[in-house]
Design brief:
Largest sheet: 5 strands, mixed
CATH class of the largest domain: Alpha Beta
CATH architecture of the largest domain: 3-Layer(aba) Sandwich
Shape: globular
Distance between the termini: 80 Å
Number of domains: 2
Strand content: 25-35%
Helix content: 40-55%
Oligomer: single chain
CATH topology of the largest domain: D-Maltodextrin-Binding Protein, domain 2
């Protein structure tokens, strides 16, 4: 009889443990921090072997960890990133987002962690170097990017084709639909390394750098900004730049 009583007691204890989550109170799981990204921008963010990787992917994960969260990434067209912030689909956005005056007015932005330098990419047999050479040319760039803003301001005579991704812009160049593509320096070098018939050249330096964007009034924005400031002084960002070879001056 005592054997049955002991067995029943153990069963009851097991049930209590299961439904209460265990004998000891566990620490709550970290909350998610949802990032909107356009994962077609190597070496900043792209997909490799089914995983999101890149300079900004690593940075986002470390920022999220520093404020007690876990980074979750949502891949989309670059033009959809800011609507995703406005409609609450994402907590933040990190995708080579230039911190322009208009964007700072509409969103909370961290301080910049990368200064953008613009390059042109072109066929080695049809060199299009410098601002003057772009005048009247068919040029491709990513929709809504700093490159589009720069072209419309500085080369109004250029025939601009905007696309969702830089890969699409490069494919237009390779197919002969445009004479040049305007992108940032690290990505220009990445595409040239992958395509023997392409070459790149310095175009201009952007006055604004890349930053993480948040909806206006986000409680996470101030925390993330403090983390970015710390990462800039403790060497974390420099280490990530070296890892992903995104220093535009190299």
């Amino acid at each position: 009889m005592s054997w049955w009583i002991n067995r029943i007691f153990k069963t009851l204890c097991l049930c209590i443990a299961i439904f209460s989550g265990g004998w000891a109170k566990k620490d709550p799981l970290p909350k998610a921090m949802h990032f909107a990204i356009c994962a077609d921008y190597p070496p900043f963010e792209y997909v490799s072997h089914g995983e999101f990787v890149g300079f900004e992917i690593d940075l986002a994960r470390q920022v999220a960890t520093a404020i007690g969260r876990v980074a979750i990434f949502h891949d989309m067209a670059f033009a959809s990133i800011f609507p995703a912030l406005k409609n609450g689909f994402a907590d933040a956005a990190i995708s080579a987002i230039t911190s322009t005056h208009n964007r700072r007015a509409a969103y909370d932005m961290t301080q910049s962690y990368f200064q953008e330098i613009l390059f042109t990419v072109f066929d080695i047999f049809n060199r299009i170097e410098g601002r003057e050479a772009l005048a009247g040319q068919k040029v491709a760039c990513q929709l809504g990017s700093t490159m589009e803003l720069w072209l419309r301001k500085n080369v109004p005579s250029a025939k601009i084709s905007t696309v969702d991704t830089s890969n699409q812009a490069i494919e237009m160049l390779k197919a002969g639909h445009v004479g040049a593509v305007v992108i940032d320096a690290p990505q220009a070098r990445e595409f040239v390394a992958q395509n023997a018939n392409l070459f790149c050249a310095y175009l201009d330096e952007s006055s604004d750098g890349y930053a993480i964007a948040f909806p206006k009034g986000s409680a996470l924005a101030k925390q993330a900004n403090q983390v970015i400031e710390k990462f800039k002084t403790d060497g974390t960002i420099d280490a990530l730049k070296e890892k992903w070879r995104v220093d535009a001056n190299n």
